[in-house]
Design a protein that fits this description.
This protein is an alpha+beta fold and 235 residues long. The chain is built from four helices and nine strands. Bound molecules: ligand 3IX. It comes from Janibacter alkaliphilus.
């Protein structure tokens, strides 16, 4: 989380070039995500694992030839979009991200398209780690205040784990439950591959004091907000 926004350190003015640049970042993260999964699941013998570790270190050295000192923050692209490529749930550039794609599904509503949580996210045997579920729901619920124009920090997130969530395909959904000035209460659920609700969530998201000057005066309840026409994963 960063206080404020920062311009992209590498502005790319040509939209085609920007798309290609982002696609290459996404491809790198996808490749490393596969590596993460296989690092957990591999059964190749010990000398082979040692050899792979040496090669992976060599690849890291190539990437470190030019790397940013700190985190990415919230960057502004040359075509005016905000992007959070380092985000561990939705970040295009982050191999730790499943990744989720969270979309606006209606007024004050969002959903995470079905996505797969594999071996790297295991908690109880064969099932998703509870802390990972919390992260997923924080992201899905947290998108809702953003799409109604009140992007906030999580003040609390209450979870009720109704049943274990099997590893594999999951999805999520969330909606505004109430608003009070700078505070938005959101409810949501995680669903398994059969569409069964496994976890219920309620969160409070508060626009921090430092951010309020950028967002205008809050109005009453959810009906008073004008939701943007579209909010994609990079919104
Ligand atoms: C323009 C940029 C805006 C930036 C917003 C930040 C992120 C949004 C960016 C993009 C959004 C897109 C997608 C979002 C997806 C996922 C979201 C993930 C979010 C996170 O992963 S985020 C990390 C974990 N999160 C924290 O690290 C929070 C630490 N914390 C604080 O930063 C402060 O604590 C804060 C900001 C919560 C409030 O602080 P503050 O100083 O701004 O305001 P204050 O304390 O006055 O509270 C104001 C009113 O909220 C009430 N209130 C506060 N806390 C409450 C609680 N727990 N229960 C019940 N009511 C509570 C008060 O009682 C008062 O109520 P009232 O106004 O009625 O008196």
């Amino acid at each position: 989380m960063t206080a404020g926004t920062y311009p992209s350190p590498e502005p790319v003015e040509d939209p085609e070039a920007l798309r290609a640049d982002e696609a290459a970042y996404r491809d790198l993260a996808d490749a490393v995500r596969e590596l993460l999964d296989l690092t957990v699941r591999t059964r190749v013998d010990q000398p082979e694992r040692a050899a792979v570790a040496t090669e992976v270190r060599a690849l890291s050295a190539r990437l470190s030839a030019r790397a940013q000192d700190g985190p990415l923050g919230l960057e502004t692209t040359s075509d005016g979009r905000l992007r959070d490529h380092g985000n561990p749930m939705v970040g295009m550039r982050n191999p730790v991200a499943p990744p989720l794609t969270v979309r606006q599904t209606g007024e004050g509503e969002a959903a995470a398209d079905p996505f797969v949580l594999g071996a790297a996210y295991e908690g109880p045997p064969g099932h998703v780690h509870g802390g990972i579920i919390a992260s997923v729901l924080d992201q899905v619920l947290g998108t809702v205040p953003a799409i109604v124009g009140r992007p906030g920090m999580t003040a609390y997130l209450n979870l009720t784990y109704r049943r274990p969530t099997p590893l594999g395909q999951v999805s999520g959904r969330a909606r505004v439950a109430g608003t009070d000035g700078w505070k938005t209460t959101v409810t949501g659920e995680l669903l398994d591959a059969d569409g069964q609700v496994t976890v219920e969530a309620e969160g409070l998201f508060v626009v921090p004091r430092w951010a309020r000057q950028y967002l205008g005066t809050p109005t009453g309840d959810a009906g008073d907000f004008e939701a943007p026409a579209e909010a994609g994963p990079d919104a």
